[in-house]
């Protein structure tokens, strides 16, 4: 995949039509490893970022984050279509045909890792390194609760209204103070829609058939509460 700066990144896609899920993995230009898992059965999307730590600033080797949001219909092609995708030229550098708008999400709820399996069985594997940093949104939680998911796995995080002096981490000067962290990631290339072509039979009857995919690129920015700025050192004025 060609990145905006002209660099090329390798992306891997996997589909499991039995479990009705797909996953996609790529390395961002800053070295972060980003995985997107779409669980169609549970209508759940899981973004995981493994961010390289700054050892000289007292951070561990890497930091893991998981952001979980509702998966809407027609966002990504179905898993059985993805499983049928065959790459004729694996070394071809691809560029998305459509750039979808940046989505800015306020992740105001924490998810309990040990109870998360009933929201999606994939949370256990995907978010294992991010046990203390799994976030979602209140509006998505409402949707899942209506589907019968147990609400005890969710905990609403402190908001600006609860803590009036809560700032964005990049404006916060004290490394040990709580703040609102921002993390951005880009999915450079993913199959977002199926293409249909029309064919006419001998009797003139027109029918349509699947004849390919449309690829998209989409960026996401997640805002979420951290108990100390030390957990958000990438979000600084540059």
Automatic annotation (TrEMBL):
Pfam families in alphabetical order: OAF_C, OAF_N
Annotated ranges, domain Out at first C-terminal: 168-236
Organism superkingdom: Eukaryota
Every Out at first protein BRICHOS-like domain range: 1-144
Entries under InterPro entries matching the protein: Oaf, Oaf_C, OAF_N
Family listed: Belongs to the OAF family.
Protein's name in the database: Out at first protein homolog
Gene responsible for this protein: Oaf
